[in-house]
């Protein structure tokens, strides 16, 4: 389950669509139950129902805007905006600029404690034929982390759209800044259609949680640390035959944290997807 884009409620005006949703329970990826709740992932406290409303606007084929507002009962209210613009240089080259910003404030019973966080990122992607390179900057302003939802079984909802959110780390610690560099290559350029590879490096610094309440929900988080992550991936999508569109992906991450943060970690993920058309 994602916090945003759950379904489309209206598309009656050209280039404008309205989304809205209200959730009373959740089902995690590894759960068979449908009556789970929602909790703040880093605070580890369960809140009430979740609701959101959003507007998406396509100015033209190269420019898109969206704004959303959401509420997790008794935990936070969150506001989100995105602007995306594409510049077509020629038939092989293009530039893309993507800006995301969140504003999160505690609400109601404030079960996770005080929250006053602004998180934003700006990414610029240059594409040349089968090559794609992205440079991104991300900033967290606030003495709490940029937190997001998880389901009752502990699974996160993938509800974070910041540029440096990576395989393992999201670079969303209190007051953190981060830079990221990503390279992707489509192997059709070497005559292997369906195969793509990529690599990413993200470095985060200025993590400062010294103003956190040591006895609060976020009191365990890192203070005055840096972190970095290297990600590598390879993905193949079957191009024809009985298993057309079956995809297989291997991802490897190396995450390193200095100071009082989490331990160093290496992680391998193997992902297989196969779309099935029901209707």
Characterization of the model:
By secondary structure, this protein is mostly beta strands. It has a single domain (8-273), classed as Porin (Beta Barrel). The chain is 0% helix and 54% strand. The protein is built from no helices and 16 strands. The chain has strands at residues 8-13, 16-23, 38-40, 45-46, 50-60, 63-72, 76-88, 93-106, 116-128, 131-141, 149-151, 177-186, 195-207, 225-237, 247-257, 265-273. Strands 1-2-5-6-7-8-9-10-12-13-14-15-16 form a 13-stranded antiparallel beta sheet, with no helix packed on it. It has a 3-stranded antiparallel beta sheet with strand order 4-3-11, with no helix packed on it. A hairpin with a 7-residue loop joins strand 15 and strand 16. The chain is globular. The two termini are 21 Å apart. Residues 1-8 have low confidence and may be disordered.
Question: Which structural traits does this protein have?
Answer:
disordered N terminus; 279 residues; Porin; three-stranded antiparallel sheet; 13-stranded antiparallel sheet; globular; mainly beta
Task: Describe the secondary structure blueprint for this structure.
Blueprint: E1 8-13, E2 16-23, E3 38-40, E4 45-46, E5 50-60, E6 63-72, E7 76-88, E8 93-106, E9 116-128, E10 131-141, E11 149-151, E12 177-186, E13 195-207, E14 225-237, E15 247-257, E16 265-273
Antiparallel strand pairs: 1-2, 2-5, 3-4, 3-11, 5-6, 6-7, 7-8, 8-9, 9-10, 10-12, 12-13, 13-14, 14-15, 15-16
Organism: Pseudomonas gessardii
InterPro entries: OM_porin_bac, Porin_dom_sf
Protein name: OprD family porin
């Amino acid at each position: 389950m994602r916090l945003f884009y759950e379904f489309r409620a209206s598309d009656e005006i050209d280039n404008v669509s309205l989304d809205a949703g209200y959730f009373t329970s959740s089902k995690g990826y590894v759960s068979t139950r449908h009556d789970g709740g929602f909790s703040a992932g880093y605070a580890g406290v369960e809140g009430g129902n979740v609701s959101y409303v959003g507007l998406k606007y396509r100015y033209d084929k190269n420019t898109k805007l969206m704004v959303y507002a959401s509420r997790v009962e008794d935990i936070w209210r969150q506001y989100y905006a995105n602007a995306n613009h594409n510049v077509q240089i020629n038939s092989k080259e293009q530039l893309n600029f993507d800006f995301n910003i969140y504003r999160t404030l505690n609400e109601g019973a404030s079960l996770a404690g005080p929250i006053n966080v602004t998180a934003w990122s700006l990414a610029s992607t240059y594409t040349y034929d089968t090559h794609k390179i992205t440079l991104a900057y991300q900033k967290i302003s606030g003495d709490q982390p940029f937190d997001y939802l998880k389901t009752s079984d502990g699974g996160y909802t993938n509800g974070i759209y910041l540029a440096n959110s990576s395989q393992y780390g999201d670079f969303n610690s209190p007051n953190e800044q981060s830079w990221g560099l990503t390279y992707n290559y489509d192997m059709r350029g070497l005559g292997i259609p369906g195969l793509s590879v990529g690599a990413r490096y993200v470095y985060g610094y200025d993590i400062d949680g010294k103003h956190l309440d040591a006895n609060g929900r976020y009191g365990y988080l890192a203070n005055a640390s840096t972190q970095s992550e290297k990600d590598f991936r390879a993905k193949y999508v079957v191009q024809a035959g009985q298993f057309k569109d079956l995809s297989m992906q291997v991802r490897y991450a190396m995450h390193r944290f200095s100071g009082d943060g989490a331990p160093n970690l290496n992680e391998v993920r193997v992902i297989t997807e196969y779309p099935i058309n029901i209707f």
